[in-house]
Structures are given as C-alpha cells and as structure tokens.
What does this fold into?
Amino acid sequence: MTGVSASLSGDVNQEEDVSSIDIGIYDVLLPCRRYRVTFKLAEVGKVSLTTEFLLRLIHTVDGMPEATVAKFFDFEPQEMTYLLNDAVSLGYINRDAGRLWLTGAGRQLFVPWDEAPQIYNVDTRTMSVGFDMLSFSPEEKAWMEHFDNRLPELPIDPSMVVTARERIPTSFKHHFNDLTSRRQARYTARKSLYSIDEIAPTERFSAIVPVIVKSSRSNPAQGEPDLLVWRSEEQLEGRHQITSAVARFVDELRIELPPDAMLHYKILNDLAPDLMRDYLGKEGVSAERFYREVVSLKGAGFRQNRRTVPIVGPLIGVKTTRLLLDGLNRTCANSQVSCIPPKFYWKAPSNRYWGLSRALPKLCDGISEYLATKVGDDAPAPLPVLLREANTRGPERAFSEVLEIGANSLPSSVEILLVPGLLVAVVVHLPVQAKTGHAVPLGFVSIDADVVERTEQLLQEMVPIELPEDRVTEDMVDFPD
It folds into this structure.
C-alpha cells in the first residue's frame, strides 16, 4: 500500500497528554520589526609580556622610581624608553618626577580575583536584529507563505509602539549573549557589551505563532492556549505580553450553545446512523455521551467491521489527520484511476477563525498530491474546493476554488470534508457539557461506501459535486488483518 507523506501527520512518536484534549489549532501573526543596532564590543586585548609585567609591578608598588624599574628589568636606557612609551601611550602609566604611577584607567584593569590586568580592545559592530512588538524579545524573520497573510494578527498596544525605540537597548543588552552566540565566529572572542550607540528601525515583518487550544477531559468546553510547540516554558516566562494576547485571542473563540443544537448533531446521525445509534436518546443524539465514550478510546482505527471511526478534535489535528490519510490509503490501495475524483470538497463551519492554521493548506496539498499519484502524471491533480456560506469568510487561499452555499443549507457548526467515492469526515463544532464555552469538535471519519454516498447526496442538494466515474468496490479496500 502506497503511503502518504508522514510529515503531514506530525510526529508520531510524540507522547500524548492523556489528561487533556486538543480542541482547536490556529496560527497567529506576531508583529515584529528589525532594528540596526550599532554597539561597541569589548574584547580581550593583547599587550607585550613586558608591558604586562610592568603594569603588575606598578600595581604592586605605585610610584616606583624609573631607575628602580630599569634595574628590575635590567634594561638599557633605549629599551626602557620603548617600554615606558608603550605603557604611557596606552594610557595606563603616568610619568611624574622620575616616578611611575598607574592612571585611573590602569587601576581599572585590575580586579580583586585576578592579579593579571584585564586589558580590552573596544571595537564597533553593527547587527540587524528582529524584535517582536509586544514583549520586545528577539525574533527571527522566517519565510511567509501566501496563505499566511490571512492569519489573524495579535494586537499591539499603541503606547508600546511609541516607546519601542527606547525599549530595544534594554532587550538587546538582556539577550546579547544569545544573539551573538547565533552569529559568526568573530563574536566568540567577546568579553562583554561595552556600549549601545545607535538604534535605527528598519523593516517590519510578522512571525508565526502556532497556538493549540487544549481543554481538560473533565471540562472540555473550557479551552486554554498551549504555546509549548512555539517556545519552551522558560522562554515564555519573559514574553507575558504575548501569552496574554494569545489568551485574549483564545477567549474570543467562546460561543453560545444554540437552541437548535440537536439539529446540528442530527447531521451525524443522518449520515452515519449505524455509528450514532448507540448515542441516541429521546431527544436525539446525546453529545455528552458521545464525547465521554469517544474521548476514552485508544488506538481506534479502520477495520473490516469498523469503517466509520468516531473522533474528538479538529480535522487538522495530528491524530485525525493520521486517520484521514490512513483512510485514503486504504480506499485507494487497489482502486482504478476512474475511481479518483477530480475534486474534493471542504464545507466550512461558521465558527470564528476556523481553518486559520498552516495545517489546513498542508493537509489540502497532501491530499491533492497523494491522489495525483493515483491518476498519473498526464492528468491534473484533484483540486480542493471550499464550500462556505455567503456571509462568512474563511481560509480561501488554502483552496483552488470557492463555492457559496445558502445560509440555511446546513447547520452553521457542521464541517464536512468529502473526497467523493473514497472518504468523508464530518464534525460538529459546539460546546459540550456547557451552555457557553469553546467548541469541541465531535464527529467521525468514514470510508463506508454508504456514508460517503449519503454525504455526496447531501452536498449535491446545495452545489454541483463532481463524482468519480467509477466507485470503489469491496475487494479494492485494504483492511488490516
């Protein structure tokens, strides 16, 4: 069986936190700016060994007569003149009435824990450094994709912008060792930052901050941002302005449970009745029962007798992406070219910021590229099509085509990914166990031919859907033993 690239499904060896669940995946833009920093770098300098011993001698006996010094070194007058001229020209020794004295600069060369003089050369350097505009921490400029311009941007406090130039020296000094350790080897001989002479703002840019919204299993509708995929806990401690801005962003994702929530979950039962019959109550699908049972499942995958797999979490999450790709592998394992659809369809829910993550175009491209391997080099790759309501905006740049559907065609929280003839995934984005809170995606991924066909019929009632010429037969599907 030909597999899809493992990079699409993330790090399969990453240990899973069983105490929490992922309920949302987003990328946000962090406003940044580059600054040209001119500074002086104090590096350990070199003087002659004789000059160093002269400084040590005068440090021990300040005001020593020149004749005594000449006798100590056993120098001829010409040699003594050269030695004294060298020390005096450096500004470390002062000659007065035939005696030698350390100058103020000379005395500062000595520290209590070292008998040798600490002699420095001061060189001017210029460095271009990026800083974010919230915490003023160093931030590298990275490559931005066309999709990224659609991502939401963390807001900047206007008062911070006005004082940005004054804040950079403090941050540059604080992070100086880290910044120079990343640069060329010429900085490895550094001793210390001597001074910061000029700060000049240059280009603006944005950095990508990946945000995973997690919630505890016991309180799924109460989401909290997780930034550990971006920075370590230690690094985040100095970026509280960013973590606070991300927390406000995540708080904006909270929604009210609609009065007709049962109609939203009814879609799951309409499309996959065999799966959902175990979660039906007097009023319809019990989202709480579905959540409790599915969240405790471990290692659920496709089997001969399990062609529809229940899921909790976003479709672009690592676990579900893995399941989607596995489903495509199985239905395409032995299928003919005529079974591959020319397009696949993604119906967007109306939830705020849905799909605004680099994981979405990555998954769309992965599906398209995989299906292209089945149709051959001469045929065009199957294209991703976004289905959305006319009054909503979404991540259009992840798709090759956008089709509008009526506002009441489907419940607003329903998300559907349909690869005609091969696979379908359906989730409902509503709070669970709460009237107000974060949406908890509940639904399924199916390679059951009946479930796929029902979904095709549902979407065909709203927009034209291009189907494959032939259908995958039972003997084509590859199931594990």
